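S1.2 Input.
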Amino acid sequence: MIGMLLDDRYRIQRRLARGGMATVYLAHDERLERPVALKIMHPHLAESADFVARFRREARSAARIIHPGVVSIFDQGVIHGQGFLVMEFIDGSNLRTLLNREGALSIQQTLQILHDVLDALRAAHRVGVIHRDIKPENVLIPTDPPARVTDFGLARAASEVSMSTTGSMLGTIAYIAPEIAVAGPIDERTDLYSVGIMAYEMLTGSIPWEGKSALQIAQHHVSDSVPLPSQTLPWIPREIDNLIATLSARDPLERPADATEALDHLSRVQAALPADLAQRRAEVAPKAPAPLTDESPAATVSLPHALPATSQTVVRTHGPESHAPTRTTKRRRIGRILSVFFLLALIGTGGGWWWWSEYGPGSYITMPQTYMRAASAVTSDLAALGLSAILEEDFSDIVPQGQVISSDPEGGQPVHKDAEVRLIVSKGVDMRTVPDLVGVSKQEAAAALQAAGLALGDVDEDFSEEVPEGMVISQKVEKNSSIPHDTQVGIVVSKGRKPLSVPQLEGLSADDAKAALDALGLSAHPSEEFSDSVPAGTVISQSTPEGTTLFKGDEVAYVVSKGPQTVQVPSVQGKPEKEAIAILQAAGLEVRVERVLGGIFGTARSTDPAAGNVVKVGSSITLYVV
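S1.3 Output.
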């Protein structure tokens, strides 16, 4: 729809977003010279005449909401049976994008957005409009506050049609009020429940019961109270817990009666909140996936125990008498000394061998070769050496799957016999799945490839009669195919419809003129005229001038000569003179009268040329009267 002009006023420029019920485009209001947001309902909704009628009714109701926090509705209409809304264009992202980027918001940010949303809902509720689908996607965060609420009334139109056709009510499960889930009565407090769920998500970075199935979440909404934020974040003050518990109470009677009462409660919380606590926010990672890092734990080495102390040697003496020792005594003493020295030498030798084999050079062995060997073969070699291995995996563009990329220590290096060897084993080439790029813009294609871990390759351009200008016509690698991560994916981008220049047709035969237009893909639209100067079957003129720029299938109008206009001379024999003259003049002939024998009877006798001859219109005919 890019480039289309709706209602002779709104020129569609580019797509902004696509949701469950509609696609939003940026358009230019050529009458008021301003940008607008154009929301066009999906074709499957257009099939329901009931939905279109309800859609138009709800759009008129929503247009009555005039408030700075509500996206204004300027106009509505129907194109190809699909309803569309013309809305105020808000320059900025929505709350979902902000949460994905930040992870969670501070208490102050959360309360300010809550205030803006509740203020907008108060204005809507005053004119009898209930939103029914409050969620981060429907809260816009412009560069200039306040936050803006959009899509009033659309959820009601879709839900009522769904109820009448399928018996089910539509809603966004994460934010759906219990009364919607059980098809109960809906009023202003239904919107307040969704606001409470949204506040919980802004503070904690996740919705209540996240990770459960849609059915389970719906059952929790009906059966369980919403968890308090302080259960996840103990530093959340009691006032915040009470605010969210009140807004998201299961029983509508326990919620504030309307947005005004909710705003009063919010104001009391803001006034009681300490300034330092207001700036605090949960440490929640952004929703976008972040690269992971592997950390290896440091190895712990047990030091050996100290060696046991040796016993002392006691030398016996012979009493107080200072007699010189005998020869036998000397021999015994020498034997004991030698025994001590032998024992010390034995202990020293054993301790040295223990140190050498446990911590010295004898404790190291040589690593087997590891690079580009099968991991099973390397671990088998390590086991034979008494070494254990820790295996980790990584992608490699060079090393085949199942083979070792690297090791710590490296192959051929010394390693302690009690050490653990770290092996990095190849998972093979990192293969990525090619996304479908056809029909999106070049920028969207590049972003999709980046998200898939691939890069954009050559960008060619070509004309296309079907694909709008700037959109991808085709991709050079088939979608859903698996390719190495470093492969670039080329695309062909549309230059729009191919411009065609109208050729000169004047002077050509009718057949040649049509053949020339057919060859260009233009549609021939001839008409015929009589001509006294241009032979029959030859182009007299062209209504579409030579050099006019058209596109394939456009019509080219031109005039083909039928030759001179002729007439058959009518028979007037026996007619009164005046009647004969009138008949000939009515046939487009000029009449010259010649009277025979004075023309006393006043009766036509003959003509020259004679009756039945074919002559050019305007030719002079001689009428003989007797």
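S1.4 Remarks. The two ends are 79 Å apart (CA to CA).
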